[in-house]
Amino acid sequence: MKTTLLTSDHYTRSTWKNGGGVFTDIAGAHRADAAVKDWDSLLWRFASTPIVEPGPFSFMPGIDRLQMVVGGRGLVLKAPGQEFDEREPFTTVRFIGETEIVTELQAGPVEVVNLMGRRGAVEIELAALRDPGDRPLPAGTHLVYAARGDCSIRLDGEDFAISHENTLKVELAEASTLALVSGLAVLGSIQLVG
Fold this sequence. Notes:
194 residues, mainly beta, 2 domains, 6-stranded antiparallel β-sheet, RmlC-like_jellyroll, Uncharacterised_HutD/Ves, RmlC_Cupin_sf
């Protein structure tokens, strides 16, 4: 097990693929053989971003996306023939990057976290940790993000305190157990395929 504390002071910023806003990049990975780290070489990315006005989402072919509102409320993603309901905070929605989406804000701006993964290269999960208790973690990379105030977790019997908007990156070679001790956290999980 390897743990790394990622602090908000060291997060980077990058423009949305369609130029409509700015991500706060928390963690990510690109293909090792890529000469340039860009959208084409992206394996996965965990980021937060404000959505302050209605508008289109970026077109991201080959990317699976998970999203969750962590600040504000009332977000609905509109797509042809369907909608993704994020009116309540800490609800995860899943969609593919090819989906034509336009946002609807029903109660003002929101802050969201996104976990994106290259289809066929990684499998991704995104969940809110609200209640104390054990949760199994498979081998892979896990990100525990303190989205709303400080939180603490226990990982294989060791306690970790995570300050507001910081992230604990956990790299596991084998399965483990995580327990939320206090606060509220967002857990992003990434497993390489193959």
